[in-house]
Amino acid sequence: MRLTILINGPDPTVNHDYALLCLDMDKLQWSREAHSGVDLPEWGELDTFGGRIVLTGSSEHETLCILNGLQISRRGEISDADGVAFMSNPSQPRTTWHWRLQAVDWTKIRAENALFGGKAQAGHQEFRHVPS
Question: Which InterPro entries does this chain map to (predicted)?
Answer without folding.
Answer: DUF3564
